[in-house]
């Protein structure tokens, strides 16, 4: 049975992003083992003074941590363990101000750790998570399908790049224009849900 890590950030009431997530869950059903990380209820830790310096000390300098330092990095390490245990990752979020919500970026910052999800060798950076696949689900108020708006979408390209940095192949499904085309919201969400279902059948 494939292990799926479902990472969601859907704080808005009647979230359209959550509807895409539900389409995924409904199609997969109980056929897979799903671990759900809700970043609204359990936010990823921000890298601040204590945990950042402990991570540098351990991961880059190879030094042992004190009990307090180990405690400071525990939440980030748990997120890494979740990722490494998964065969597939589903990451769902709305676009905020052309990019990732801060909580989603904090999740990436916590899991991208040298020696665990990437390494640096003579040939440069190398991801350590080869063989895993990720599906990125995003909703946005504007239509970013044509220039100049395409170039202003920094969210899914960043998420795909960070997945790729760890060696994870990824694909994005986006519901565009949910504020721009208010008369077509149901149609846009429905099409994105159909795309989610099609993705599942192509990748199982």
TrEMBL record:
Stored InterPro entries: Flavodoxin_fold, Flavoprotein-like_sf, FMN-dep_NADH:Q_OxRdtase_AzoR1, NADH:quinone_OxRdtase_FMN_depd
The Enzyme Commission number assigned here is 1.6.5.-, 1.7.1.17
Cofactor requirements of the protein:
FMN
Question: Where in this chain does the record put each Flavodoxin-like fold domain?
Answer: 2-198
The family database entries (Gene3D superfamilies) matched by this protein are listed as: 3.40.50.360
**Binding positions for FMN per the UniProt entry:** 95-98, 139-142
Q: Which domain of life is it from?
A: Bacteria
Q: Which Pfam families match?
A: Flavodoxin_2
Tell me the keywords, alphabetical order: Flavoprotein, FMN, NAD, Oxidoreductase
| Cofactor binding comment, as recorded | Binds 1 FMN per subunit.
Region forming the signal peptide: none
Q: Which reaction does it catalyse?
A: N,N-dimethyl-1,4-phenylenediamine + anthranilate + 2 NAD(+) = 2-(4-dimethylaminophenyl)diazenylbenzoate + 2 NADH + 2 H(+); 2 a quinone + NADH + H(+) = 2 a 1,4-benzosemiquinone + NAD(+)
What top-level class of enzyme does the UniProt entry assign? oxidoreductase
Tell me the protein family, please.
Answer: Belongs to the azoreductase type 1 family.
Q: What does this protein do?
A: Also exhibits azoreductase activity. Catalyzes the reductive cleavage of the azo bond in aromatic azo compounds to the corresponding amines.
Indicate the quaternary assembly.
Answer: Homodimer.
What HAMAP family does the record tag this protein with? Azoreductase_type1
The protein depicted here goes by the name FMN dependent NADH:quinone oxidoreductase
Q: From which source organism is this entry?
A: Marinomonas sargassi
């Amino acid at each position: 049975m494939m292990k799926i890590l479902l990472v969601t950030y859907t704080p808005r009431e009647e979230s359209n992003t959550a509807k895409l997530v539900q389409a995924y869950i409904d199609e997969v059903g109980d056929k897979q083992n799903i671990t759900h990380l809700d970043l609204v209820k359990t936010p990823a830790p921000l890298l601040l003074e204590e945990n950042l310096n402990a991570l540098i000390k351990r991961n880059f300098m190879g030094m042992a941590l004190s009990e307090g330092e180990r405690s400071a990095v525990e939440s980030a390490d748990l997120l890494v363990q979740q990722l490494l245990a998964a065969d597939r990752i589903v990451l769902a979020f709305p676009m905020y101000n052309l990019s990732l919500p801060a909580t989603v970026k904090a999740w990436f910052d916590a899991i991208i750790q040298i020696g665990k999800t990437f390494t640096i060798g003579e040939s440069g950076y190398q991801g350590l998570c080869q063989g895993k696949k990720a599906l990125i689900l995003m909703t946005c108020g504007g239509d970013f399908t044509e220039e100049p708006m395409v170039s202003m979408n920094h969210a899914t390209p960043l998420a795909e790049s960070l997945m790729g940095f760890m060696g994870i192949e990824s694909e994005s499904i986006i519901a565009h224009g949910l504020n721009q085309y208010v008369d077509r919201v149901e149609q846009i969400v429905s099409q994105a849900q159909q795309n989610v279902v099609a993705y599942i059948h192509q990748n199982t």
